[in-house]
Amino acid sequence: MASVFEYAPAPESRSVVDIAPSYGLFIDGEFTDAADGKVFKTVSPSSEEVLAEVAQAGAADVDRAVKAARRAFEKWSALPGSERAKYLFRIARIIQERSRELAVLETLDNGKPIRETRDADLPLVAAHFFYYAGWADKLGHAGYGADPRPLGVAGQVIPWNFPLLMLAWKIAPALAAGNTVVLKPAETTPLSALFFADICRQAGLPKGVVNIIPGYGDAGAELVAHPDVNKVAFTGSTAVGKAIARQIAGTDKKVTLELGGKGANIVFDDAPIDQAVEGIVNGIFFNQGQVCCAGSRLLVQESIHDELLDSLKRRLSTLRLGDPLDKNTDIGAINSADQLARITALAETGEAEGAERWSPACELPSSGYWFAPTLFTNVTQAHTVARDEIFGPVLSVLTFRTPDEAVAKANNSQYGLSAGIWTEKGSRILAVANQLRAGVVWANTFNKFDPTSPFGGYKESGFGREGGRHGLEGYLDV
Amino acid sequence: MSESSATRLNVFKTYKLYVGGKFPRSESGRVYEVSDSKGKWLANAPLSSRKDARDAVVAARKAFGGWSGATAYNRGQILYRIAEMLEGRREQFVREVGEAEGLSKSKAGAVVDAAIDRWVWYAGWTDKIGQIVGGANPVAGPFFNLSTPEPTGVVTVIAPQDSSFLGLVSVIAPVIATGNTVVVIASEKSPLPALSLGEVLATSDLPGGVVNILSGKAGEMGPHLASHQDVNAIDLAGADPVLAKELEIAAADNLKRVLRPQPVDDWSADPGMSRMTAFLETKTVWHPTGSLGAGGSSY
Amino acid sequence: MPTTLTAFADVTTSDSALRRFLHGLPGVDAVGLEARAASLGTRSIKTTAKAYAIDLAISMIDLTTLEGADTPGKVRALSAKAVNPDPTDRTTPMTAAVCVYPDMVATAKAALNGADVKIASVATAFPAGRAALPVKLADTRDAVAAGADEIDMVIDRGAFLAGRYLETYELIRTIKEACVREDGSAARLKVIFETGELSTYDNIRRASWIGMLAGADFIKTSTGKVGVNATPANTLLMLEAVRDFRAQTGIQIGVKPAGGIRTTKDAIKFLVLVNETVGEDWLSNHWFRFGASSLLNDLLMQRQKLSTGRYSGPDYVTVD
Is S-adenosyl-L-methionine a UniProt keyword of this protein (chain B) (predicted)? Predict the structure, then answer.
């Protein structure tokens, strides 16, 4: 936006974080090289700068980590819940203390704006540990029997879109319930998990309770398949989720899967329009749309389509894309070249299928992975961009005429993770929310998260819930 | 009476499937022989095909909207009505269960009584489960946040092989109590009590299609139901380990919720809640609370 | 009525028509509105942008004294400060206006002595607005006759809250006519809603539309005399109103948050709201004002900090 009021660059200082040139796997309380000595590089998506070299876990390392977790399990699960709680409270406090450092680190490794890591990711990470810390000595009151037992070793595989937050969602309930964990962060965003390993050391967490093994999909598959893993928790794509479901068939492994989505954001003609526009923007451009519960399908009542689109386009024109470390940046970098290629290809498919493409005037930086905020109008249910998860800053706009049609279109998806409803009429909110087949329904708001609030999908968006009392179930033998 | 009854040829019952509230034969025209525990022929049962299974899924899907949308109170009344109807036909089921499972009349009677009581137990659960597993979540912000359990959808059940009636009731009642609809494959060896249950359900105000009962081979129909894209969940209670694994793999195609087979020593024991919660989704709805006036911010 | 307003001619023909129109405006979700305002409040305005914003903010101030204890001396001091905010730095811009009671307009006019600082006068039985119409008209005419460039009127919140929307509208129209001078020119009219008394955001949006339809040149949040005055959220909402009004009529209307804005940090947050809601067309003191008194000194201290690199102190700005 060219304006007489140009904001000068306001970069967050990189000096609050000290990234070492290389990192090992964190197994049994020690940083260690991979058994085969393999390493990979992690780059900053906004600049393609190499941030560090990281040991790459292979099958032998997975086995080593699972064995360490197994050894640690007996003592950890036998600790009084109140003692486990105190470890988790310690971790939560250290995360709060180090939150600026972790926010900058996450922004560097992931590419998302510092505004989000500072104001959303990190506060939620700390809150999640605080929340589950309090459960550790109250499991008998959680509604799963008088003395519910932990499962054992949890194998956890997390994605790159919210690296530290997904770690918190996985590790906090697992430890509170008395499990030990082996966690594999995504290969493009290993650093915050490795810093978390250091936080575990600072907190004095017994060795082997948390093991962090950066690596690729093969390491994740090894972890899921390991015979001594009792619990599999995965957040990522539906395709991999299905592969995991097949892999663990016939075993006793308990599983929770948080997978893809194609959330419908439904705007009725009596919506609070200005807030709806903000909700639409937040729904699809938060974290560059790389959010499983993104409101990637806008279903707008036909009678206000033009008016809403005008408002939306005007609003998109004010989004500030650029240096993720700049405190005024709204839209950061796409996480990887691969993801950028996928978004680009799907957007091209949208055009080829006849949808109308629009982006605000927006200069993309010359290095790094960038994609301008994009709208597709004249989209129907048959378009690929209305059905496939794009996982990028691309919004497909469809119309409806009646509440019934809105619900039918919203539910017409193999996914069922999230949905939004915008109307000032209370009974319509409740009626539509009731009909939507989605695990999280945001009415007159969008993309809100809280550790007390269960999160998870219907249908091919996965099963099990994370967060709240519900989130304990996946880590207890019930 | 006694003379004439001694010479009277009794009327055999033709056992039929229960699908969509109707009693069809298998579309395949096939039947198989069902014997009692000593090998004596009891009746022919329909040998359902994959097309029967497909039709049953269609019926279950069609019934889902109405059944899941019914009030919990209404579902509870209907489940209780099933218990009432069963009580009235107790003697029939005592005989059928006794023959099927080789039980004495008193033992079979205890099994049937337990099955009737199980319907009563789940009748009472319909309007309580929501409060037990759902509730308001105290989020850190100006939002009202409520989690409620909702039925998963169409559930396929492989009924227990040995406990042909109490086992069957114990696996289908929790599924429908919460608003799911069900396609159940009855015990292959002893399907007759299950098929007779259809006659009870049909006269209990239960909408057609909520429960669909197939007889035949789980190994034949199971894979089609496990891979069916319009089935949301599968209970493998009566599947042997080899079949259970095969079906769990097939179920991954659309990420069905899978309840793996668990050893059950005593079907009359307190069933707990786990068979209900296995087929529930948690939906969480957020809404801003906001301040009463623009004068003061609420946060 | 301007021709571009003819599309809205029907809505002011009766109380019921006006009510239907106002209640047909999109609702406001309080949490979403406040969250958006808070989010824009996290913008980090540094170095050159901050220097620009500070000067812009100074130039947008309606430097205000509205006390029962106002004296000619106080008003003269205020006027001097408006013309020459920082005696140590002559590059400091003048404020947009001084804002006084009607009986002080003449004093201010004399003190300003032709400087390019407007004289704004509150009128219409400010701040309560509880007086008969002839009194309000006389109040307004007095101020205009004494040389006021701008009139800051208050609406009758009682009438508004009682649902007498047309009466509220007619009052503004009547005062607008009273702003016309003998030579045919007119004082610009700012309409104060006293948002803290209207209480709900829906009411603030409706009041904004009444004001805009009735011919307000500015819509203004508050008198500064109640518990809650200008907030980022209610100002954002009014900015949305003037944005929507211009989109539909082509008529641009100014916005003036008043009361409670005391620091440079606060002022810059409001400028960010303007920048990102209505854009640069409103980034001048013809279209945006701050009703404030103590804000000016904080801006001046921040300005000194930027130019000298040292933090300033209250002894290095004038107390008037």
Answer: no
